[in-house]
Design a protein that fits this description.
The chain starts with a helix and ends with a helix. With 200 residues, it is mainly α. It contains seven helices and no strands. It has a domain at 50-131. Helix 1 packs across helix 2, helix 2 crosses helix 6 and helix 4 packs across helix 6 (99-177).
Length: 200
């Protein structure tokens, strides 16, 4: 917990106890150096009971072109059958305006609507949990990137310091190797380098 307190203070600017549940979970995972991502589809696939699976199947079938085609074909067949019976015998089992058909359609809608709503409610719950999980993963990734930036900055500053120290040492060595000369006198190494450059 001590490490989680340090992470919370460093990255969130507040104590661990002041964080919400999601931020606490992320701070704990960062301090323990563990991953936070998990496969949510396996969790959801393992949970549904018979009623939930049935609701998903009804919603899936009710929202398909197969259902629309069968529904239209049933209505057309119903109307055609009543028309043929009316033309041949003068009476039908469901005369126009097809009140019995309307009753069946109303019953189907009354049964199908709550089942589809159950499936949609379950899907909304899945989406909510998935969004929360995405937020956790994104927050952890953002904080890890911040930590990486800090480490890179520390390394860069350390390297700059080391380079400055090396440069100071080189200047000391140069001052020892090259004694001071009067104002007009040229450095023999510099003169040699300029002659070589002119020859080339």
């Amino acid at each position: 917990m001590h490490k989680s307190d340090e992470v919370a203070a460093k990255l969130f600017g507040v104590s661990y106890e002041a964080l919400d549940d999601v931020a606490k979970k992320v701070a704990r995972h960062i301090s323990e150096r563990t991953h936070i991502a998990r496969n949510l589809s396996k969790e959801f696939d393992a949970e549904p009971n018979f009623g939930q699976r049935a609701a998903d199947a009804v919603a899936s079938f009710g929202g398909s072109w197969t259902f629309v085609g069968l529904f239209a074909a049933t209505m057309l067949l119903w109307m055609a059958l009543n028309t043929v019976l009316l033309a041949r015998g003068g009476s039908t089992f469901d005369p126009y305006p097809y009140i019995l058909l309307n009753l069946f359609l109303s019953m189907l809608a009354a049964i199908q609507a709550p089942i589809i709503l159950m499936s949609q409610k379950r899907q909304a719950e899945k989406d909510r949990i998935s969004a929360e999980h995405d937020y956790e993963v994104n927050l952890k990734a953002e904080l890890e990137i911040m930590l990486l930036h800090e480490k890179v900055d520390l390394l860069r500053n350390k390297q700059w310091g080391e380079l400055l120290e090396i440069q100071k040492e080189q200047l000391k060595l140069l001052s020892v190797l090259m004694p001071e000369r009067p104002m007009g006198e040229r450095c023999p190494v510099c003169a040699s380098a300029s002659r070589t450059a002119n020859v080339i």
